[in-house]
Amino acid sequence: MELPAIKLPQIELPFDIPLLMHPPIDHFLIAIPVLVLLLEIVNLIVKKKAIGVTSFFLLLLTVVVAIAAYMTGSADGKEAFPLLSEAAQGELKAHKLLGTYLMFASIVVLLFKLLSSMIQRGLMKALYLLVLILFVAGILKQGKDGGELVYEYGVNVQKVQELDSDLDDLKEELEDLQEESKKTAPAVKAVEEVKEKATEVQLKAAIVKQKAEEKADEVKEKAANAVEKVKDTANKMKEKVEEKAADIKEKVQSAVEVVPVETTKPEIATH
Fold first, then answer.
1. DSSP calls for the chain
2. pLDDT tens digits, residue range 142-154?
3. Which ranges of the chain have pLDDT less than 50?
4. What pTM was estimated for this model as a whole?
């Protein structure tokens, strides 16, 4: 018979639940109710009040352990669920649902224990023992189903193996990196020194280049100024030469006009 689904509100805890704490807690959850059942059966014969008080406190501890089993089971199941097959996921959901019912059932058993202690009647005690037996049967079935989940479907086992494998791989990589870092430390240091020197040389080269550019600009400017001066001087000299040439030409023309031109007749020879 399939149990109706129960959805509990999610409670945010101020701490993280460690993985793989569910199996050891389940051992206590199975052992304590069985011990209580044996004590109650013995108490039917010896009828000692101390046994009844002991079984009450053990049932109170059972409630605490049942809540812890539910919470640790939820944490482990959440980690293992994505790694399981579809069939295993269905079994895990059913296991969680029965665990939820058993958590509430532990409270019911405790209440029946209180009622049987307050109402000293055989019918009430018999009803309490019946509820306790059913609870123990449910706990034993839950333990059996949990074992099948682990051994048949590999719940948590596969996850732990993967985590251990990843941890071993990380350790090996860390050791390799440490060895490589030891070997390459001098080379790395030398590379850093070369980088520093190269940076220093680049800085000096940039400064020299800047100064050279500034000097070149200054030389260009001076050369341009000198060329302009030469051009100006040449133009002035050209103008002066042209002026002198014009004066000389004018004087020559004036002299030519003043001097008379003599005409000589050819002599006739006489014989």
1. -PPPP--PPP---SSPPPTT-HHHHHHHHHHHHHHHHHHHHHHHHH--HHHHHHHHHHHHHHHHHHHHHHHHHHHHHHHHGGGS-HHHHHHHHHHHHHHHHHHHHHHHHHHHHHHHHHS--HHHHHHHHHHHHHHHHHHHHHHHHHHHHHHHH-TTHHHHHHHHHHHHHHHHHHHHHHHHHHHHHHHHHHHHHHHHHHHHHHHHHHHHHHHHHHHHHHHHHHHHHHHHHHHHHHHHHHHHHHHHHHHHHHHHHHHHHHSPPP--PPPPP--
2. 999 888 888 777 6
3. 261, 263-264, 271
4. 0.57
